[in-house]
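// run 5 | inverse folding | seed 20
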């Protein structure tokens, strides 16, 4: 009975290998000031960005630079590959799955050419954001070097 009101911890895993940093370190005012939500960012290595949680692919931008996954437990996580990458108009990005698909954490979503992005966009740093619409009391961030699928946030 006492467990009825205890919040379950939900894990968010890294969508790519790299170095996890706090969202406030992202050199973009919208992300650093948490205007779209709280989270972390990954300085990526590799080329395949994966689902950070189990759920439905609720949005893939037409330029394939960002996507969101919505769990069945009121959690939505957005992965935004690089900064100012919408201006690339899809160049350097390849969609591997379609909106509406059910995915498990670690399933490939977008393949990206990080060399192209580094040359043509502001930065390759990749914010991983728990959306403001999610049911969240707190987020514990794991700031470290990770492999795709390693836990980067625990959301309560």
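// decoded
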């Amino acid at each position: 009975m006492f467990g009825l009101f205890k919040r379950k911890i939900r894990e968010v895993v890294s969508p790519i290998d790299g170095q996890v940093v706090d969202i406030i370190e992202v050199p973009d005012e919208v992300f650093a000031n948490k205007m779209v939500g709280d989270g972390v960012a990954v300085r990526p290595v590799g080329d395949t960005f994966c689902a950070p949680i189990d759920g439905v692919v609720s949005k893939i931008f037409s330029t394939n630079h960002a996507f969101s996954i919505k769990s069945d437990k009121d959690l939505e996580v957005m992965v935004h590959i690089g900064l100012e990458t919408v201006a690339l108009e899809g160049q350097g990005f390849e969609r591997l799955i379609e909106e509406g698909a059910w995915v498990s954490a670690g399933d490939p979503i977008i393949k990206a050419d990080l060399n192209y992005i580094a040359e043509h966009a502001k930065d390759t740093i990749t914010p991983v954001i728990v959306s403001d619409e999610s049911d969240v009391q707190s987020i514990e961030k794991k700031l470290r070097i990770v492999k795709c699928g390693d836990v980067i946030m625990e959301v309560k």
